[in-house]
Amino acid sequence: MSKGKKVTNEDINKLVEKYDALKKDEKLDLSADQDLSIAIMNLISIEEHLFFSGGKTGNSKYYELLDEVREMRKGLLKKIIKEYDGEVWCISKHLLAASYRLMEYGTKCLGRGKKKEAEEVFEKAYNLYSLFWALNMGVIKLEDVKSV
Q1: What is the residue-wise DSSP string for 40-98?
Q2: Which among 18, 70, 82, 93 has the fewest CB atoms less than 10 Å away?
Q3: pLDDT per residue over 26-40, tens digit each?
Q4: Cα distance from N-terminal residue to C-terminal residue, the chain
Q5: Which residues contact 147 (CB under 8 A, 6 or more apart)?
Q6: At what angle do helices 88-111 and 31-57 cross, to 10 degrees?
Q7: pTM value?
Q8: 92 touches 122 (CB < 8 A)
């Protein structure tokens, strides 16, 4: 993926193929880390809900809980993001958060009978999730993500 180039499904498929090759060559099994990444997505969502609950109710206890959940999320994210430079940490968190929100939106589209829109949104969610792994496995470099 060169600078200025839009990420395509073909690019994502190539990333998945590179991951599969790494898995075979280095005996990597990321299924546990993938489970952990989904848990982190949910923790990010809990942080968002606690923020909005605190704002809506004026109850500062929600913000205290938010801080506890945030610390837990940060500790767990360190288990996946072993080496990061500059904005990789923040970009990674936002890739997971956006992927999760798009999955949620796609599910709501399905519930409204908007199957085509749901599939388009799910594809975007999957692409963001794949970019998270590609970035954190060193398959792509930060400068490539910035151009995306």
Answers
A1: HHHHHHHHHHHHHHHHHH--THHHHHHHHHHHHHHHHHHHH--S--TTHHHHHHHHHHH
A2: 82
A3: 545 567 888 999 999
A4: 9
A5: 1, 2, 3, 4, 5
A6: 80
A7: 0.76
A8: no
